[in-house]
Design a protein that fits this description.
This protein has 12 helices and 14 strands. The chain is α/β, with parallel strands linked by helices and 362 residues long.
């Protein structure tokens, strides 16, 4: 009898990666959900003997799904697959009933090991399935039966225009790449401050320089901010990373970092640089790892201290035109710390980036 497997992730790219990472020749019926609410409905419909669950999703996230499964005593075995690799995230999901936790991007060997460990998948079933296939058609390899096809957004042919465009399927790819990189940086920040970092769904947009301050959606317009910018470059890809920190966050950050000195402007600059080094470095490392390339980083440059966000951006706006902007807003649980990380890729980088992401989609 086929195992009814449900893959729940808001990213089409991630759903494909998970489906491709299932054990070879496994007799499994696969269904898909794009958010937690869809997953709960599918489980109630009998489509989720096993649930492979993401955490960061719209409508209903992974934590809410686990809570609903517990409260409603739903019949499913859950394995979390997430870019949020904080130790506490692992502890929280297993405490809520998940069998295990796998970091993104999913590793086929690791997934198979976990499925075997809990008796969900066995070598005997593979041997029987493979034998049956070999007897019938030696030249073919049995693939998992998919009851619901993975939805792939249609990519429109680009019009001849000076403005670059971002097709829905490519936006999804950029968002998933950012999600994994965000998790790497969030984990490092959590360990540095000994806190739990609340991770959002990254915002991915093509913007004009005039829209740059608007892109920082979580930074309050009436608050003063301090910022650092750091350039990066790789093979055919270049851009800048901006870290924007609300000034009201400094005292809490100093306390969490056990900073013993008086928190004056000099100390705030030191703390700002510490945060920039942690988040920018880890996030760019996460992106480069997935793209299988390396970035060289320039020296960090202070955009300004204690200034309105529009003033902070305007100082360096002459360097930015139309750009691919990835915004990640980091929040610390139980602390009013507001920190935005913005990755800005030049429009000249888009062709190289799109080519690399198209390879991941194939």
């Amino acid at each position: 009898m086929s195992t009814r497997l449900l893959i729940c992730d808001d990213s089409n790219m991630a759903r494909k990666q998970v489906a491709r990472s299932l054990p070879d020749n496994w007799d499994v019926d696969i269904s898909f959900a794009t958010n937690g609410q869809e997953a709960i409905t599918a489980i109630k419909e009998g489509k989720g003997d096993v649930l492979l669950l993401d955490l960061n999703m719209p409508v209903m996230d992974g934590y809410e799904v686990l809570e609903a499964i517990l409260k409603q005593d739903l019949p499913t075995m859950t394995i979390v697959i997430s870019g949020d690799i904080q130790p506490e995230a692992h502890q929280r999901v297993t405490g809520m009933g998940a069998l295990d936790f796998i970091k993104k991007p999913v590793n086929k060997t690791k997934l198979t090991e976990i499925l075997k460990a809990y008796g969900i998948f066995t070598e005997d079933s593979v041997a029987a399935e493979k034998s049956s296939v070999d007897d019938k058609a030696p030249e073919k390899v049995a693939l998992p039966k998919i009851t619901e096809p993975i939805p792939v957004a249609e990519t429109e042919k680009p019009e001849k225009t000076e403005l670059i465009t971002l097709a829905p399927d490519m936006r999804d790819c950029y968002q998933e790449i950012a999600n994994v990189a965000m998790g790497r940086a969030g984990d490092l920040l959590a360990r540095l401050l000994d806190v739990f970092v609340l991770l959002p769904i990254p915002n991915v947009n093509l913007i004009e320089v005039s829209e740059l301050s608007m892109a920082l959606s979580s930074v309050a317009a009436n608050e003063s901010t301090s910022g650092v910018c750091q350039g990066f470059i790789g093979a055919g890809i270049s851009g800048e990373a901006l870290l924007i920190l609300n000034d009201s966050s400094f005292k809490d950050i100093a306390r969490l970092m056990d900073y013993q000195q008086e928190v004056d402007e000099s100390a705030e600059l030191e703390l700002l640089m510490d945060m920039a080094n942690t988040l920018i470095g880890a996030c760019l490392s996460g992106v480069s790892e997935q793209l299988d390339m390396t970035f060289s980083q320039g020296h960090p440059v202070v955009l300004g201290q204690h200034r309105k966000i529009k003033e902070l951006i305007a100082t360096n706006s002459s360097k930015w035109r139309q750009t691919l902007a990835i915004e990640i807003s980091y929040n610390i649980e139980d602390y009013p710390i507001k920190c935005d990380l913005l990755l800005l890729f030049t429009e000249e980088s888009m062709q190289t980036l799109n080519n690399k992401l198209a390879y991941l989609l194939d």
